[in-house]
Queue: 2 jobs
Job 1
Amino acid sequence: MSAHAGTGRAAASVDRVFVGRAAVLVLALGQIVSNVAFEVFSPNDLQSGVEFSPIVPPGPMFAIWGVIIAASILWAVLQVRPSVRDSAVRDRLVVPLSLVYAGFALWLAAASLGQQSPLTLAVFVLIVGAHAVAWRRISQGRAEIAGWKPVDRITLYVSQGIYAGWTSMAFFVNVATVAQGTGAPNEGAWGTTWQLLVIAAAAGVAVVFVVLSGGSAFYALAASYALVGAGISSSLGGFAVLAVALGVGVAIVVGSTVVVRALRARRGVG
């Protein structure tokens, strides 16, 4: 009787693991579906560049989404393999990554109501918060991750680094567009001031993620890419003060990453 009960509990546990991992895969693939649905059915197009807002990167730079989604799908495929079912780290990433991938679809749904809709901010808070939880759990599980196959380990670090790097900065781009939609000016003393505050907040959040991720080079690369893109738009629009501030933001991201990685190396942390 007890043997049968034990077997049943084990089977139920395995089923829960499979269902959770499968959900990650479905939601990761769903990012493609939601993107296509947005392109076909949304009454509004996503705008970019200085013509729309001084700190929104130029349109071509948003092509990074293709890399982000491809990397997230690769991770989702790798983590669902039966051979890696016994993995505490992968299990602990199921919930936050499910929220991230579902959040992408929710953001597009909110953006279809208008890119300046406050609803987009609520979704971004969910996405960025889920990324913070995911990186916290990754950092706590580095001992296990060190024993993974290189393809799994690299895919996790790359996918999480570039996804978190881009979206954590895109959140503040979204803040700027929503503020602009409420009537906040882009020019003048107040226009410059509030946008500088947004840039400062973005740099601060980037430093938090650099610390959470243990100095992820992939995070720093994607976050810097976003800030450089915003800087390009600011420069093209003649917003020199904003462009300089964004350059300082890039220096802060890179500098904090170098410091965190140096401290980890000094302590002998892998």
Job 2
Amino acid sequence: MTNDDYESRIFTLVSSLIEKTNQRTISWALVDDDTFEYAFTRSAVQVKSEDRDGRWPFYFTILDEQARPIEQVYESANSTYFQLDKLYQCASRSHRGLDEKIAEMLEELQKTDDPWASKRKTFKDDEPPF
């Protein structure tokens, strides 16, 4: 396999993980302060921020069935080919359940133009509001 083929395959893997995460068909686990992991049947992948700040540089690690690292890709702000920043953000949102919460809130807002309407007390015309 040439270096171009290798990079293309890693790019395709990362892009597929981003797509499936955004579709909410896969979910990520937090395995360390800043490391997110997705487990396949016989392997796993991890994405982490080196400085633990959620920003570049990022590492993408492929683990074998014994959780040993077998490949690692490094990406800095100067080289964003693999889109590890996007993968990290998707994994973080997945772990926190943020996409589901936003979907719930949007659905609730669609039910009524006024989300506080059910919380307000209504008064009859002859009843004082105090």
